[in-house]
Amino acid sequence: MKLSLDICILSCICHFALGAQAKSFVEAISAYPELSNFTSLLNSNSGLALIFYSISPTAPQTVLVPDNNAFESFQKSTGQTFASQPYDYIQNVINYQLLNGNLKSEDFGHTAGITVPTGLIGPTYNNRTAGSSLISSGASTGNHNGQVVFIAPNTTSTSFSSRQLGSKGAYVQSGLGHQVNLTAIDGVWDGGVFQIVDGFLTLPLICTQTIRAWGLKALDSSLNRTGLSSVLDHVNNVTCLGPNDKAFLQAGSPDTKANVSDLTSALAFHTIPQPLYSNFLQDGQTFASLTNDTIRVTIRDGAYYFNDAKAIKLNVLTNNGLMHVLDRVMSPLDSTGASSSTKPSSPTATVTSAGTPSSSSTSPTTTQSSSAARALVLESSGWRIFEILGFVYSYIFLLF
Ligand SMILES: *[C@@H]1O[C@H](CO)[C@@H](O)[C@H](O)[C@H]1NC(C)=O
Ligand SMILES: *[C@@H]1O[C@H](CO)[C@@H](O)[C@H](O)[C@H]1NC(C)=O
Ligand SMILES: *[C@@H]1O[C@H](CO)[C@@H](O)[C@H](O)[C@H]1NC(C)=O
Ligand SMILES: *[C@@H]1O[C@H](CO)[C@@H](O)[C@H](O)[C@H]1NC(C)=O
Ligand SMILES: *[C@@H]1O[C@H](CO)[C@@H](O)[C@H](O)[C@H]1NC(C)=O
Ligand SMILES: *[C@@H]1O[C@H](CO)[C@@H](O)[C@H](O)[C@H]1NC(C)=O
Ligand SMILES: *[C@@H]1O[C@H](CO)[C@@H](O)[C@H](O)[C@H]1NC(C)=O
Ligand SMILES: *[C@@H]1O[C@H](CO)[C@@H](O)[C@H](O)[C@H]1NC(C)=O
């Protein structure tokens, strides 16, 4: 029998290598008929199975095992089988589906979601490093610097399998903001646990590719006009607050009408030099933008606002951080005028709880004292921006 021969070969390599984890993994998932495609992929490719050998029970991993639907939809959308993809690609995707730690059903129920480091490393797909929030939030074992996934409960899920399992479904969000459904089965193997997903994760790309995939044309052309595309693509640790096309239009089309220096300043105002995954954000928290102006987070009824802009899509992961897509171009905090009517009222919460993830390190104590003097109104377009600070250019290029 081919299967038993392969398992024999695997176990020989295992004994030769670090232990019986790989055999345990293949055996464990073999019990699930809906995982047969992944089982045969590993059985026919001992190189891939090697990935599982190196996982030590002292640094357990959660495997997001793609089910047969994942293989089918991959083939539908690309016209090619997953197994026929370049080896590097397959390896990266599998590494991305290896999550740090033992993640079980109860971990997927946090309404704010969780950000989890994975085995995907190397600058092409992970040009960022973990901040203290991420390190302190349970990624204490394994490679906490690996690229992350964002997992949140799918509150609208009514699918039979989820109800049958007595747990809510969840989604896993990866590169380009793509989501796959997670079915928590809390399967156990020697190297940790495994869960089922119905799609392959998408490897995070650089900012501009992500922005283009999202069809954010005004933002894209603004980055092109200012020459900031390459800056944004090659900086580590970034949160890009990306207004959509409607937002640019509403703001008087600064992408085409503002001059390059104003536009540069506005883009820097929408960039925060650290990755801010939404689950670490707290109502009332403030951050300094690249222009060193204050951006305040407001959380209301589950919606996230950055100053007066609402995030319409959170945690679109890029290789160097992430993007939150906004419904408007942000106004400076203390600007007055038309925008104030849609501005969320001042949050009252303060960041004090010792139990919350390292708020001190993620929240530079910015103030808003001097912004008013620096806020300008472009009369012609009605678009509010900060005046060009002499140091902005040099500051940006020093930083990057
Ligand atoms: C996946 O499994 C199905 C059976 O569920 C089978 O028909 C199909 O050939 C398999 N595909 C691959 C790529 O192994
Ligand atoms: C990663 O970041 C460095 C800057 O630290 C940059 O030079 C490099 O081009 C980036 N690589 C990728 C693949 O984005
Ligand atoms: C990325 O940000 C974290 C804090 O969020 C910091 O510890 C780390 O040094 C930064 N890495 C780079 C390459 O700037
Ligand atoms: C959540 O579940 C609903 C209903 O089953 C489904 O339509 C939707 O696609 C799911 N969302 C995600 C992110 O998987
Ligand atoms: C998630 O599940 C829902 C149904 O439960 C389905 O409509 C949707 O297409 C699934 N999403 C993916 C990415 O497979
Ligand atoms: C920005 O520049 C890139 C590369 O030069 C180009 O492919 C892209 O279409 C440009 N974007 C817009 C919106 O013009
Ligand atoms: C850009 O426009 C602003 C007005 O919004 C003006 O103050 C500034 O001088 C202009 N800069 C250049 C380089 O033309
Ligand atoms: C940023 O602004 C704060 C006060 O708002 C100030 O203390 C700090 O020195 C500024 N940093 C830079 C780099 O200008």
Automatic annotation (TrEMBL):
The protein, known as: FAS1 domain-containing protein
Residue numbers spanned by region Disordered: 336-367
GO BP term (any one): macroautophagy
Keyword Signal: yes
SUPFAM superfamilies named among the record's database cross-references: FAS1 domain
Keyword tRNA processing part of the UniProt annotation: no
Key words, A-Z: Signal
Signal peptide start-end: 1-19
Coiled-coil regions, chain positions: none
Top-rank lineage group of the source organism: Eukaryota
A cellular component term, taken from the record's GO annotations: fungal-type vacuole membrane
Record Pfam families: Fasciclin
Domain FAS1: 22-201, 203-330
